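Comment thread on ticket #2218

A.B. wrote:
> Attaching the input chain for the structure job we discussed in standup.
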Amino acid sequence: MYTSSFISDVFTSVASKYDIMNDAMSFGLHRLWKKQFCSLVKNPGAKILDVATGSGDIAFGLYKRALNLGLTPDIIGVDINPAMLSLAKVKKLEKNITCGLDFMEADSTDLPFKDNTFDYYTISFGIRNIPDISEALQEAHRVLKPGGKFLCMEFGKPCLPGIKQAYNFYSNYFIPKMGSLIAGNRDAYQYLVDSIRAFPDRKKFLSMMQAAGFKISYGRSLNFGVASIYEGYKA
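C.D. wrote:
> Ran it. Output below, let me know if you need it in another format.
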């Protein structure tokens, strides 16, 4: 069992290479997945909370989507790790964004927002890193407005014969090696592999969403189950 402090240290240590490693590990597919994920926010001009925002990819994607649709963004990206947040803040300066998007440090299991605040809650490749997933889901439900939408994208475990074996081989041998070569931290990327394995399967995660109060929830696979997108609504 990985501790909260270990997980924090992992992301602090790999922050400077985080975006490069994402491209290398997914062969760039994560960009397509994130674009599809952002498209599920039908009203990007609504009030949006992006949790475990990391370097801000989803927050920036939603900001751009809002502008492209002629809408005014109202997005907050939160993360518990200061090193990751600093990446997002630097990107914000580089993009010359002065309003409509803010980043702040916050714990996903104890969010500093009132009940019924947001129209959308998004979290991409971050929920498996939260020690108490059930508590994070309850917080997501709490801060969403009635009728608000929960969107989660997370790695999965392919089930199709052949693809499953190839994916396991890639995960076991190549991801830790890339972590060592690119980020200089094999242990951090071994944690990545272990955290994906430990994440609940789709049926279990959907039941956790329902237990947190989401009345309508379902999931869809990306690339044969390498990743999944989950949607839920607050009644």
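A.B. wrote:
> Thanks. Noting for the ticket: The domain at 4-158+201-234 is CATH 3.40.50.150 (Rossmann fold).
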